[in-house]
Amino acid sequence: MTTIRHHLSDELLGAYAAGDLPEAFGLVVAVHLSMCDECRARSMTLETLGGAVLDTGEAVPMGEGALGAAMARLDALMQEPKAAPKRRTGVPAPLAEYIGGDLDAVRWKSVGKGVKQAILPTDRLASARLLRIPGGVAVPDHGHKGLELTLVLQGAFSDGTGRFGLCICLAATEAPLRFKGLMPRLAQPFFRI
Ligand code: ZN
User: Fold this and answer.
1) pLDDT at res. 152
2) Are strands 109-110 and 116-120 parallel, antiparallel or unpaired?
3) How far is the CA of 64 from the centre of ligand 1 (A)?
4) How far is residue 173 from each of residues 120, 126, 130, measured CA to CA in Å?
5) Phi, psi of 167 (to 5 degrees)
6) Residue 9 C-alpha to ligand 1 middle, in angstroms?
7) Can you give the residue range of the structural domain that contains 169?
8) What value does the mean pLDDT of the chain take?
9) Can you give the CATH number for the domain in which 113 is found?
10) How many A from CA of 26 to the centre of ligand 1?
11) What is the distance in A from the centroid of ligand 1 to the CA of 69?
12) 119 C-alpha to ligand 1 centroid (Å)
């Protein structure tokens, strides 16, 4: 079972809602949102807040009534997060389009040490890839920092006992590719494309 330990920042969710993210990052955010009730609820809250600001504009100051109504909407959203989009094939819907179905359809390319990757077709501002990392390959814990965004789709980097199982990750990196923080320094040469 996949456990999401790193959540999306409000900054990232805001940029996603505004359409400011490169496609690769937008994809990782969309997949994360499809898998994570917590971030989905926060995303909807941010969108509601943004909408409230837009609705009132400058001509109509937001009074107590408007604020109360907005808060009531937020409460409702927080209590009833929308159900995640259905997964037809076990692959989150936003990802399925990119890989043409499920993970069995992915055309993996070996990048050394048993690690495989598949580059996904996105705009060139950033790149998105799936990484298939075999058990026993130590990957340092990392979250959403700097110019990378990684999401574990299957398996886990660490099960808390120091053992590492097979995991499949979705990673977005800003171009030019930099893996500092994503993979150990030693592994960097394997990821050059
Ligand atoms: Zn999350």
Assistant:
1) 86
2) antiparallel
3) 32
4) 12, 6, 11
5) -140, 150
6) 9
7) 93-191
8) 74
9) 2.60.120.10
10) 14
11) 27
12) 23
By three-state DSSP, how is residue 92 classified? Answer: coil
153 CA → ligand 1 middle, Å = 12
User: Is 155 part of a structural domain of the chain?
Assistant: yes
Q: How many angstroms does the Cα of residue 98 sit away from the middle of ligand 1?
A: 21
Ligand 1 center to 156 CA (angstroms): 15
Q: Report pLDDT for 54.
A: 56
pLDDT, one tens digit per residue, over 30-73 is: 999 999 999 999 999 888 877 665 555 555 455 667 767 766 76
Alpha carbon distances (Å) from 151 to 36, 60, 92, 157 = 11, 41, 12, 10
In a domain, 145, yes or no: yes
* 77 within a domain of the structure (yes/no): no
In the reported structure, the alpha carbon of residue 1 is separated from the centroid of ligand 1 by a whole-number distance in angstroms of 15
Q: How far is the CA of 79 from the centre of ligand 1 (A)?
A: 16
Cα–Cα distance between 156 and 6 in angstroms, integer?
A: 12
Is residue 138 assigned to a domain?
Answer: yes
The fraction of the chain above a pLDDT of 70, given in percent, is: 59
* Segment among 119-128, 148-157, 181-190 with least mean pLDDT: 181-190
What separation in Å is there between the alpha carbon of 27 and the centre of ligand 1?
14
Does pTM surpass 0.85? Answer: no
Number of domains in the chain: 1
